[in-house]
Write a structure and sequence with these properties.
β16 and β17 form a beta hairpin. The strands form three sheets. Strands 3, 4, 5, 6, 11, 12, 13, 14 and 15 form a nine-stranded mixed sheet that branches. The protein is 35% helix and 27% strand. α1 (13-24) runs parallel beside α3 and α14 packs antiparallel against α15. It folds into three domains: 4-65 and 104-173 and 285-361, FAD/NAD(P)-binding domain (3-Layer(bba) Sandwich); 179-280, D-Amino Acid Oxidase, subunit A, domain 2 (D-Amino Acid Oxidase, Chain A, domain 2, 2-Layer Sandwich); 368-426. It has 16 helices and 19 strands. By secondary structure, it is an alpha+beta fold. The chain binds flavin-adenine dinucleotide. Flavin-adenine dinucleotide binds at residues 9-15, 32-35, 41-48, 128-129, 157-159, 182, 184, 234, 236, 277, 279, 299-300, 305, 312-316, 318.
Amino acid sequence: MADYDAIVVGAGLAGSTAAYCMAKAGLSVLVLERGDAAGAKNVTGGRMYAHSLEKIIPGFAEEAPVQRKVVRERISMLTGESCFTIDFGSSRFKDPASASYTVLRAEFDAWLAGKAEEAGCDVVCPAVADDLLRENGKVTGIIAGDDELTGEVVLLADGVNSLLAQKAGLKKELSPHHVAVGAKEVVELSSGVINDRFNLNDGEGLAHLFAGAPSQGLVGGGFLYTNKDSLCVGLVITVSEMAKSAARLPDMLEAFRESSPVKPYLTGGKIIEYSAHLVPEGGINMTPILSADNLLVLGDAAGFCLNLGFTVRGMDYAIGSGALAAETVIEAKEKGDFSNATLGSYKTRLENSFVMQDMNTHRRAPDFIEHTPRMFKEYPELVENILADMFTVSGPSKLMVKKALPRVFKAGLLNLAKDGFRGSRAI
Ligand SMILES: Cc1cc2nc3c(=O)[nH]c(=O)nc-3n(C[C@H](O)[C@H](O)[C@H](O)COP(=O)(O)OP(=O)(O)OC[C@H]3O[C@@H](n4cnc5c(N)ncnc54)[C@H](O)[C@@H]3O)c2cc1C
């Protein structure tokens, strides 16, 4: 008989959610986490859409260490000289069904892993799952150092690299076109200063994404999120783009931090943390084989993440897929069958949920973003030029259309029409 019903590799959001749901249903669950604590190694920009966790732990934000509830959205296009910003605030953000919160993973993941422990899971950290344990070819558990731990099913929630899914032949080696590298700094500032600088009340937060100059023409962008008493500032750039550029990400981040649209927000702040991590960005094109006999793949390990330029989402998919993996294992336990005949229903569950439906809806987005470099240089410059024409007066005025049209023609009407059409089908 196996030591556990389920062994979960990774106490990120996917792993801890799955563990929590399985333990609540009475299954015996072991979670192995290689970090010193859950969340110690995990990075996010900062904003989690609450809907998926809300369904599992209603009202979770009352007790979880969330930072601020996002009530303002900003998107800026930067060129070296100008900054064009959309600033959107709405009472609709107060609706609990669509709420989102800034979070710091070290504390948030520790809280969620704690919930799994409270529900009865054994959570062991630091513990690295080195390999899958097999008997006559069948997965029977995990090898961790000198230990062999047996479980009826192993859930691979080990993040974007998922070496174990690769070893199991479920996932190919990562393509540099399918992953971005993100670097982030946490800058300490008092909550009063943050409230004043961003026009927020206590508990209210802002999500600010940047396109154009921060990525220095490469496919990517910048972000700034407000926490209670710190700001997260960072960049996410596609790995294949970094590889063809001489630029170094830490230098790009410094240039972004020091740029005139960002620097004033950070004045007087102290950098208290630096982290870097890969982000899956291949969408549905990087979905691995999701299940096999005694094995499931979830969260970033399954590539469930979307970067649409105006929003980055991976955390709600990690939680959503964790819950569906748990549902599948609970069914397998009831049937006493952990073969792929039963575990295969995980894929159907995902397809019927927002997780795969979103991956499908935005299946063209990764390709569109990667192959439309104009979005990262020419189009921000076009917007800059049109707005500069609008707002600068140095002599006789011209009709706006006479100012704007030459700019539009220079960018290429055909390019604009083509990119607009492709973008509308992708984003
Ligand atoms: C810079 C950046 C910005 C982002 N911004 C956002 C955002 O604003 N909003 C959003 O929703 N998403 C964002 N994301 C994506 C989001 O962070 C991920 O989608 C999410 O963390 C995935 O959760 P996960 O549990 O699947 O994986 P992870 O959080 O990576 O957790 C995997 C866990 O497995 C552990 N592990 C790995 N291998 C082993 C092993 N062999 N043995 C034991 N443990 C192991 C790791 O230590 C880790 O704890 C961002 C990501 C980055 C990097």
